[in-house]
Amino acid sequence: MRHYFLQFCALTVFLIGGQLPAEAVQWQPLSGTSRYKVAYDEQSIRLTSQGRLEIWIRFIPWGETERKSAVAEYKEKRYRSHLEYYEIDCGNQTALLGLIDILGASRARLKRLQGGSQQYPIVPDSVLDNVAQHICPVLDEETESEDEPANSEQTEGLGPVEGSAISKETLQRIESLQKATSSRQATPEAWKELGNIYFDTDQPEQAIKAYDHALALKPDDTDILNDQGAMFRQTGNFERALANFEKAFNIDPHNLESLYNSGYVYGFDLNNIPKALIIWRRYLELESTSDTARQVQSFIDRYGK
What we know:
- This protein is α+β, with helices and mostly antiparallel strands.
- It has 2 domains: 128 residues, Lipocalin, CATH 2.40.128; 141 residues, Alpha Horseshoe (Serine Threonine Protein Phosphatase 5, Tetratricopeptide repeat), CATH 1.25.40.
- It is 45% helix and 16% strand.
- Strands 1, 2, 3, 4, 5, 6, 7 and 8 form an 8-stranded antiparallel β-sheet that branches.
């Protein structure tokens, strides 16, 4: 199950004390590490009062072996990916790690870890060095033209990832799964994994088709229903997204992910706040202590007046 909670390319969690709109996150792929696919959120770049650039970076394990290593490192069995928040000093080539968000299925935040207060040098050829090379020129350009209004037309929304932006290993895995699912003996797990890869590489239409095949074989799988619903939502098909989420919740009345997702679509996509408030309050009846529950409570506090 992907770690989404309708935060795929949206991060509805409060990253730096504020809520980012669903359209705000634009993941730009970087060269990965031996363990992770890496991307940075272009829209999270901000200049701090100390003259540093703040940014969020996403890390997704290449495969199950790498995921298990991360499970051991972060001591979280439900780990699927994580985000790291940095402040980068372009002039001194140093960085400060402020936060780490551990994400689980459907990109729901499982826990938040605090970073440190010390800046450290950016190691050449590291992920941070790669990030700095991409974003530090942005600081120079913005400093030179800070009085000029931003041109919103230059910001492009996320679309399907082009083949050139997908790693060789991922392309090989897609090809392998396409072969595995071409036979009559194809399992729902194979179709689900193929859908998950399309999910992670921002290819919603392909993910929806793969999940269709998985659900034909395993129609009551709430993980697949939620993940496909997230993809429907990304394509703007809110009716189909809600149908998936509501079916998942009917199958499992304690499925918090589907409940959260339904509330998000009603509240922020369809602007049906009264309906969203009913769902959010139902969520808190089932669970009220997690980071996600606190986020849901913040929605109620903000929109329930």
